[in-house]
Amino acid sequence: MRAAAEEASDLDALYSALGRVVVASARMESRLRYNVGWMAGDHDAGWIVFEGQSVEWLVSNGKAILGQITEMKWWPSDHSDRIARAFNDIQDAARMRNLLVHGQWAKSCSGDEICTARPQTAKADQRIFHVYRSRHRKGFEEREIAICDLDDLAQRMLDLAVEIDDAYEDAIDPRRGQARSRQE
Questions:
Q1: What are the residues whose beta carbons fall under 8 Å from the beta carbon of 165, sequence distance 6 or more?
Q2: Which domain of life is it from (predicted)?
Q3: How far is the C-alpha of 131 from the C-alpha of 142, rounded, in Å?
Q4: pLDDT reported for residue 47
Q5: Per-residue pLDDT at 6
Q6: φ, ψ for residue 181, nearest 5 deg
């Protein structure tokens, strides 16, 4: 009876942590969509083009727009570099989110030889689960995930939502970024 109660408690923690990832992901994707739209020069009716697009699509097209902006020298290249890094980080976070949200969860590994273990340097957390997913042409993937890893990803996504906003705002108004740097 006690083991069942502990497992239920662990599952409750998993569900809460996954919920935080989903909510943070929605925020991150919304800010990405908003900023790519503004970079494209769309401020009114064109928003319909960006609505409902995947992170992959937004990042790919955002990079294309960013390339054109860089070519036209709208702002110094370090701003473009910062935005490109944010795009890449958002894409990485979204890929992990997809594994976590669409994957199958288990308390143990389906096979040690195919499971990616948590890094040795990861935070200690005894609430460990395994998530696996098989995708067409992408193969089978399994990872060991702790509750703290989910919490860290959710926070990273919220931070990336702020970063993509700040990177774009600093690019269009360099004085804003300089003022913030002096305050820090």
A1: 31, 34, 35
A2: Bacteria
A3: 6
A4: 78
A5: 58
A6: -65, -40
